Amino acid sequence: xxxxxxxxxxxxxxxxxxxxxxxxxxxxxxxxxxxxxxxxxxxxxxxxxxxxxxxxxxxxxxxxxxxxxxxxxxxxxxxxxxxxxxxxxxxxxxxxxxxxxxxxxxxxxxxxxxxxxxxxxxxxxxxxxxxxxxxxxxxxxxxxxxxxxxxxxxxxxxxxxxxxxxxxxxxxxxxxxxxxxxxxxxxxxxxxxxxxxxxxxxxxxxxxxxxxxxxxxxxxxxxxxxxxxxxxxxxxxxxxxxxxxx
Length: 246
Prior knowledge:
By secondary structure, the chain is an alpha/beta fold. The protein is built from one helix and 15 strands, in the order ββαβββββββββββββ.
């Protein structure tokens, strides 16, 4: 029994008022089911297409990786062949170099032996050095007096942490961690001569190094400090220009 429109009403079954309250919810559920019924096939089709596209991409990626691996194997094999051929060429070059040097009377430098200009010796670095005066007994790889002149081969490398006179065709590791000092470029040179300077331990920023003899008539020179690159090369242009910075 319930009161409806001011009257007592007897009814059986569910309360109609509750049914009225549930109607919006039921309508929403029905709409959702209808939406799923309409669009579910389309969504499933899209998912299938996406999965197929992903599978195709994976297949393409696998093929690409396999191709790269094959190419790498071919490149590695070629590199081995090139290295073997280069070693063979180096062997032949060294053989002919030894023959030529022997014919020219060039022998290995011997400690304690005296050399006179224009004697040429070969040192442990493979470079050729010419004695520039009589009675030279010093080691070409460490001598900075100008008694030896580099002719060919790899430039010798010298460690330096104090004032010194630089020489052509030598690379220097300059370490000013203990204090600043001055390096003087050689007054003479030949076009194409070079001098390499390398900053050891970034010491130039702490204790700058003064470089004199750069350019003809330049009294100020060059200061190697934090504004400079850690490795520089100087070139001898000609007698008029002198040395210049690369």
